[in-house]
Amino acid sequence: MLDDGGVLPYVYRVTKYDPADRDEHGHYTGAEDTVSDHGQVEGAYLRAIAAFAADTGIERLAVREPQLPAPCLNFGLEPPMDGFGLDGVFPTGPDGFHDGAEVSVDTALDLVRVMLRDGGAWCRLEVEDTFAVHVGWDQYMYIGSSRPCETAVVKARALGLFPERIEASPYDFEPEDEGPQRPADDEFWDHLRWSMQWGNSRVLEEQYAHNSARWHRLTPDTIDTVRAGLAPRARLGVWPDLSCDIDAVLATLPAEGHVECVWQDREGRMHSVGADEDEFPELSARLCDASAAMILPMYADDRVPLLAAVMPDSDGVVRARWEIDSTPSTRKWALLKTLQRGGIITGRVTRIADFWVTFVHIGGVEAMINIPELSWRPFNHPSEVVAVGQEISAEILDVDPIRERVSLSLKTLHEDPMPLLTGLIGQTVLGRVTKLVPFGVFVRIEEKENGFEGLVHNTELGDGHPDHPRLGVQVGDALPVKILDIDPARRRITLSHRQAISPGQDEPGA
Questions:
Q1: Where is the S1 motif domain (predicted)?
Q2: Alpha-carbon gap, residue 399 to 337, rounded angstroms
């Protein structure tokens, strides 16, 4: 009965069943009915809860993990109740039945009455670390408190009920270790807007209780309005847009099995319904007036939205305890949240794009290394630096959670060798011509294939005719050059052939 998976120190099973009427297996064998009498016994349950609440000193409780029955199904032993019994319970209507809704003890008792009568609605009623009420099958009640509540125990017995001390409620919340919950915060909505702009993310599923959802068709003009009207702590799923080709949608119906159909009528209202193969003809008839629709699978393993998140509280903290759907985007988000600029990460090179950007798989995300971040040294193609399938380590330069992009640098993990060459300034070396350009020639000054290259401007090639300063110079020629300057910050090396072959020329006093 605690959020961390623990239990309250005092937990009681409160029932109308006399423990003396249980067999050796603990099964009740007495004459009490397993449904509510809508009268004296039901009233005794409610008065007992009120007594435990008074003994604990609480006046308000929170609705946790609200549930409604699946469409068209009713597992209760009593006839279905209009509005699942919630009509009139909340001042704002059934929309008040959401996770985290705070209710008075009187409203909590109304909810307990609904659960005792199998109205369809179910929830945990709790005060964190202090109090909890859980209603189980067959009129079993579980009350937990931070206090012994001795007066309430006596009163429950006087009411004809049987309170028994137990270790824990079988309806305690058991958290699933599924990883972090993605909040539907500003970052999520920015991601959704970007996805709408560049993709087909258009339909929002708002699950405000288990088995119950509202649907919204999003546009850039309506997304803020929809966001403002979502239920607190709702679980969100983002789906592709509806199709206006209704015949094509109906053609996707399977031969058998359950599906969910979501559609928009010609007045712009959204609808959804579950159906199996026996109900497909009726479903087809209902879609005659639809302007757009889509078919979704009902089974969780096949039902994967594009994006998923859960609404945080007003302070930005996610307190809803149900798990969001696991999607590729959610898994990417969880990984991106662990990445920090300046961090070192290991991955495997997956491909080198036509535009020479190198992509590296680092888990659920394909990061990229732009050309300038591959190496300090010059190269003609990224394949000279890395190979597809190679495992590399790189530094994280930037993380963009909106576009799900990670930029890496391979070269920052290595020392820049260019500053080491500054000691050569003023010396003459024999270099190799690598490139001819209109304003001069490039010469490699190191004896290695990826050695640094410097520019010999036309004015520094020689004393020949100014219109033909490079006359006779070819790629591959050995050319003596004097190193005039090395600028590591600008990645520039300035050379002179003229001064190399005429020592002392252009020097002070020459």
A1: 342-411, 426-498
A2: 9
